[in-house]
Amino acid sequence: MSKTSTNILRQGEAQRVTLTLNGRERSGHCEPRELLSDFIRHELGAIGTHVGCEHGVCGACTVHIDGVAARSCLMLAVQVQGRRVDTVEGLAPDQTLGDLQQAFQRHHALQCGFCTAGILMSCADYLQRVPDPSEEQVREMLSGHICRCTGYTPIVQAVLDVAARRNGRIRSEQGEEVEHA
Amino acid sequence: MKPAPFDYLRAMSTHEALDALARFGEDARVLAGGQSLMAVLNMRLAQPRVLVDISRTEELNQVHADDKTGQLRVSAAATQGSVEWRKSLGNEVPMLAMAFPHISHFQIRNRGTVCGSIAHADPSAELPLVLAVLGGDVTLRSTKKKRVLAAQDFFQGMLMTAREPDELVESVRFPLKKPGERYAFTEFSARHGDFAMVACAAVVTDDAIRIAVGGVADRPTVERWPRLSGDDLRGALNDLSWKLGAQDDAHISAKYRRHLVRQLGWRVIEEAK
């Protein structure tokens, strides 16, 4: 008998998974095949993360794993044992909207809101790496998300706006940079 | 849209992963980034009995540029993002830096692995094309042996490779930029980040052209020509477009695929010249 057998999680058996969700240690049970997206919603009750296509195309379920944006429908819950997971709830820790969310509100960057949680999480990661992106870069980053309401333009404006403000500039509603803050 | 039940092993070492592959063989699938495999599992197009998760196998999460061997070595668990965001990538393997923006999306590259894409061997995928045109190789390891295959020997058809069921694609190696070589990559797809309908990559030197085409035949196809230009080049590209055996599919016609091979082929070669 090889030693691997000891580490195998058996199908159908509930496993305990402990992770840090939005800064708080949480744990729950799941079987090996449970998707992270379902675990976050059903077991941990954090229903801000939405589930759309369940094959990685729509981007609605995007969360951060150790700070990096990824699809939670393309991960298993057992894979986040001991890791840091951040969801849209973490963007508004004290029930007040973060600057990215405020920019989305200002620019009407959502209508039905189904795609928004995932888009916000992608933007949060991307702006950490590329603090002052071009419109082309923002559009390329957003290509990993599907929004059927907005036509994307207000989302692009919101992201450019928040980047400008974080870099000490202000943009008009039409998208031009008008003055130095 | 949920996976069928499976046993799950988080491999903490290469040894443990290989052990599991030796034991379970065809009943096991290696889970690296999961950006293709998890979708396939969710749709139940595959129902493996055991998943061997190497995504947290630290010794497989290596990216190393070796000036002595002249290769960039990417191990099995290293994500596409970890290679793409290397500051030095443009000097190390310029073709990779050109190809990454075309590969799916930022969020997918964050988790998808380089070796996973090579092992999946989708004929439209960018990384197999880059590996093939640069003449890179694939290291396969099992509990019994290790072997290194040239890219052209590794890819054997649509989603088919030379990997045996007990073998792990342990790493792939991309040749580093060589003096005198110039590179270009382009592709045509319906939407940004979609699989390419046709993708072309070219390596041009003062006296030779290497061109590879993806998305048409059942695997990336590499051609070596002298440094053709003008009508000679157009003729060679036309011959190539017919040789690849383009077929009609739900997206585009064979005729249009041949057109794309001629146009994109011309474009990458002229750009690399």
State the gist of this model.
With 181 residues, chain A is α+β, with helices and mostly antiparallel strands. In chain A, 29% of the residues lie in helices and 19% in strands. Chain A has helices spanning 36-43, 99-106, 116-129, 135-142, 153-166, and strands at residues 8-9, 15-21, 24-30, 62-65, 68-71, 84-86, 169-171, 177-180.
Question: Would you write up a description of this structure?
Answer:
Chain A has 181 residues and is of the alpha+beta class. Chain A has 2 domains: 14-91, Roll (Ubiquitin-like (UB roll)), CATH 3.10.20.30; 99-180, [2Fe-2S]-binding domain (DNA polymerase, domain 1). Chain A is 29% helix and 19% strand. Chain A has 5 helices and 8 strands, in the order βββαβββααααββ. Chain A has helices at residues 36-43, 99-106, 116-129, 135-142, 153-166; strands at 8-9, 15-21, 24-30, 62-65, 68-71, 84-86, 169-171, 177-180. In chain A, strands 3-2-6-4-5 form a 5-stranded mixed beta sheet, sandwiched between helices. In chain A, strands 7-8 form a two-stranded antiparallel ribbon. In chain A, a hairpin with a 2-residue loop joins strand 2 and strand 3. In chain A, helix 2 packs across helix 5 and helix 4 packs across helix 5. Chain B is α+β, with helices and mostly antiparallel strands and 273 residues long. Chain B has 3 domains: 7-53, 2-Layer Sandwich (Uridine Diphospho-n-acetylenolpyruvylglucosamine Reductase, domain 2), CATH 3.30.43.10; 60-175, Uridine Diphospho-n-acetylenolpyruvylglucosamine Reductase, domain 3 (2-Layer Sandwich); 182-272, Enolase-like, domain 1 (2-Layer Sandwich), CATH 3.30.390. Helices cover 33% and strands 26% of the residues of chain B. Chain B is built from 11 helices and 14 strands. Chain B has a 5-stranded antiparallel beta sheet with strand order 4-5-10-6-7. Chain B has a 4-stranded antiparallel beta sheet with strand order 11-12-13-14, with helices on both faces. In chain B, helix 10 crosses helix 11. The longest helix of chain B has 19 residues, at 254-272. Chain B is globular. The mean pLDDT of chain B is 97. Chains A and B meet through strand 1, strand 5 and helix 3 of A and strand 1, helix 1, helix 2, strand 3 and helix 6 of B. Strand 1 of chain A pairs antiparallel with strand 1 (7-10) of chain B, so a sheet runs across the interface.
